[in-house]
């Protein structure tokens, strides 16, 4: 009897151990809205979600393009040249007076090296896939967006030193690029590429159901990636392809000062934010204004115009409900975020003083007097 109990106990332990191994090897999506597991992302990239494979058909390429040669493609020349120019303009264009004054020293050691942008040793790694169907309310798309997030990575060979062989150094760079797709697929334009999808006609509900099903999967990384790219998955060739490309979003650290250089804040970093929209007619990206990113200089030049636009009943309602979309004429094509400190840094609080308090108070009183309520 005792042996049977011991045997049963050991069997239970073995079963639990096996379950534990299975759980450790399995991967699930984050609430059906994001793929963040590194092994799954690597498998997805190998399975066709590298940025070069996704952009290839849209750019009309008939050859395999490695990420390392991506920015040599003419369609991406605007992205490359604009970013390099922004880097060249630092630190004299910095919103921080202390940093801007450093421009006189011509010390480029603290800046992002622009050579990395199109260096043969630089590439882009897939680091996230995010379902943003919630952005459908903006009206730009019917079913929202899907974002593929890539991080810059370099691998360069050091020059051999005396008595030492050349070594290769690899690391990720402080540059993130998001390739944004319309979540609702459509037939791609006819181009000479093996990556062209077949025609598909799906509703927003169909897209959502695929993501919900993905969230229920409990599979090892390679199997999960294979299912996501299968005909049933939300990332199949028919559901996500070059015909849905909308824009590139860039977030890169262009300058960093050590704590020993900038002691008052324990260091200093500046991040450049930019958007490049896709033009199907020319098969290229162009620099575009950023959603809800106010151009402070433009607004300060004509504060009454901005105040009049902002304080209408319609816009007060949208602002109160967190869905205000600022008119494009008030928007900027680029922004610089200063760290550390977030919104406590004056350089990041670009909306401060753009509308007078007295105008805001009057507009809100009038709004409520008409029977409207504020949440």
What is the H/E string? HEHHHHEEEHHEEEHHHEH
Rg, please? 25 Å
Please give the share of residues in helix: 25-40%
Number of helices: 11
The quaternary structure here is single chain
Mean pLDDT over the full residue set: 81
How many structural domains are formed by the residues? Answer: 2
The overall strand count is: 8
Structural shape: globular
Structural category:
alpha+beta
Strand content: 15-25%
Span between termini: 69 Å
What can be said about the biggest beta sheet? 8 strands, antiparallel
Q: Which spans of ≥5 residues are poorly predicted at pLDDT below 50?
A: 1-24, 188-199
Outline the structure in words.
The termini are far apart. The chain is an alpha+beta fold and 375 residues long. Strands 1, 2, 3, 4, 5, 6, 7 and 8 form an eight-stranded antiparallel sheet that branches. Residues 1-24 and 188-199 have low confidence and may be disordered. It is built from eleven helices and eight strands. A hairpin with a 4-residue loop joins strand 6 (268-279) and strand 7. Helix 2 packs parallel to helix 7 (221-229).
